[in-house]
Amino acid sequence: MNMEFGNQRTARKREIRTRAPTACQTCRLRKTRCDNTRPTCSYCAVQGMECNYPETSPHQNQVGFDSGNPSNNEVLQRLNHIAGLLENIKSEGSTSSTRSLKEGFFELAMQNTSPIADSLPGSNPSSTSTASIDDRGADNDPRVLYMASSGENMLRWPIFNKVITEAEKHIRSFLLDSLDNQPRSMQAPRQVGIGSFVDEIPRLCRKYFLLCHRRNPIVDLDSLDRYAKEVTVQGLGWDGPSCQVLLACALASCTSSKFVPLADDMPANLDALQAPPMSDANLDLAETYFHAAKQRFGFLHTSPTDIQCFLLAGSYHRHAIRPLQAWFCYQQASCRLEVRLRSLCREQWTADDNYHNLESRLYWSCIQAEHEMQSELPLWSSGLESLGYSDPFPKFSRRSSSSYDEMDEDQDFAVKPGFELDGTEEEKGWKFYIGSICNRRTTNDIVSDMWCQGEKGWTKDIPGLLRKTMDAERVVTSWYQISVSGIQSQKDNPDLRFFFRGRYHMALERIYRPAFYLAMHFQGMPAFIRKNNAMWAEVFHLAQKAIDNCVTLIPSYWYQFRHEWIWNVVRASFACAVHILGAVLYQLEASRDPSTWQVRLPSNWTALVRLSIRTLKHWSSESTDLEVMASTLERMYQGTCRLANVRPDLHLL
Fold it and tell me: How far are the Cα atoms of 142, 359, 430 from residue 366, in angstroms, in the given order?
């Protein structure tokens, strides 16, 4: 048996193994399967190429193509070209990511803003655009809008070199830089059964209608009425309508129903200026409703109700001073709206009458929300604005009498005595909504045009900058006059009048900022530029307007209720205080030379800056970036007081 086993192994060794067919030289070079058809394989036959097999080729020992064959040379040239392209892509890709991070935003933010550099005629400013992932075109570049609107960019102005640290010069964004210091997650609200609050839903939805909707008419009120009734009778579901009702209740709970306008006569002692009256907003209750709504986000899709939910969620996050969370919600709303609009397959997207102009409102609400956030965040938008929507603005559609007005009188759905909202009031709220969109788009277009070349561009064409500034001032002033024309007195919609006035002065602050920059750095300008007295007279006239405008704004920014724009307002207070400090630092130098241009400082400039610090500290417990801004402004204020030999009196805070 052993002998037989050994013979079997010997016989197996003697078996002749057949060799697999060898591919032709072309297919071997391409590293693809060859069908071994003789004399020419299928691939070579289709390409019209010479097909050589190793065993039949006259040059069996040669590796590669025949250099004398034109077809082979063509293949080699194509392969070399492809290899070169790959190498170029690899080399560019290895550096583009670095440039996109360092130069695309970091270097743009930290560039030298000295007016002396590159101010001579004929010199070209170094371009800050780089081949990176952020190069998406100059239109609506958030970095330009952010530089024009943020207070962080002002910290790099040379006028502040004596009161700012090197680390503070490199602050890109107080919010983005403080992300590592943010709590890892928002504190979960107290777990309370939402069922116990269902009876409050009709009242809170009516409060939302009276206070929130007229400032930002996102939802369709007839649908919200119906959803609120269904939830009251059938209970909460896990769908978009229930989510929308909960979000409306959350917004109503965190909104104050009392509004006491700021007195026109400012007290002489700003340190004694009182905060707004106590609000009746219930933030704990608002968080409970919002937490219940957030549990339903996973069930939302692309219906109008679902898109409204993300817009309402973004609005709530802005009330709660959670700007990044608001940005995420707005991006969700914009992306889902784009999917919806593209799925409709219409040659021109027009407002759908079946939704009471709802699609148009959703579109412009998304655009407005992104624009307002981009002025404070250097983040790219969703691209919804380039979609090609046809309606210039939403159209006001007077709705029928609310179903709330037809409810039984024995049901307590009243908010508080004194709330009345008729068609005229709703139309005024719609006017504020349209006016806000117009103001934001106009201001963004103006400042983007003025800042497209940055500070260096202003020194090269100061007369052109002055023309743009005065034209922009006329446009914004005309908008304000038209907007408040229907509001006759302070008692007539004081909150809307207050918001219109705030938007007007905020737009002026950004329009005057370039001229203010030139005035503050007058002494660093070349001699031939400083000789044009007529031009500089206009520059300093606008700079004085900028200072006076900030004097008006800082008390208004302190006197604020919780609303959707509170984070933007508090940040704007920081920028106004930086304006005041810049004017003080300039005047310290200018006072030594009576022949140079002077600015008129407010007599209470220390109290104004302290009031801005109070504003930041008042809201700093809700957002870490505001806390950092408050400490930065306080250090700048102390440094300026030391140079001016003035007591800071920080104990008054």
Answer: 16, 11, 16
427-454 pLDDT, tens per residue?
A: 777 778 888 888 888 888 888 889 888 8
DSSP labels, 3-41: HHHHHHHHHHHTPPPPPPPPPPHHHHHHT------SSS-
Q: Are residues 386 and 456 in the same domain?
A: no
Phi-psi region for residue 472, left (φ > 0), alpha (ψ -120 to 50) or beta? alpha
Q: How far apart are CA 74 and CA 90, in angstroms?
A: 24
**In the block, residue with structure tokens 């920081």:** 574
Q: Are 445 and 490 in contact (CB under 8 A)?
A: no
Domain boundaries, position 519? 150-179+425-652
Residue 97 in domain: no
The model's pLDDT over 140-160, given as tens digits with 9 standing for 90+, comes to 577 888 888 899 999 999 999
Predicted TM-score of the model (pTM): 0.77
Which of 400, 434, 456 is the last residue in one of the domains? 400
Query: Which are the contacts of 490, defined by CB distance < 8 A and separation ≥ 6?
Result: 261, 497
Asked if the model's pLDDT at residue 216 lies above 90, the reply is no
Q: Write down the H helix ranges in 344-389.
A: 358-374
3-state secondary structure of 387: helix
| Cα distance between residue 337 and residue 314, in whole Å | 15
Report the distance separating Cα 610 and Cα 647, nearest Å. 12
For residue 372, give the amino acid letter.
E
122 within some domain: no
In a domain, 110, yes or no: no
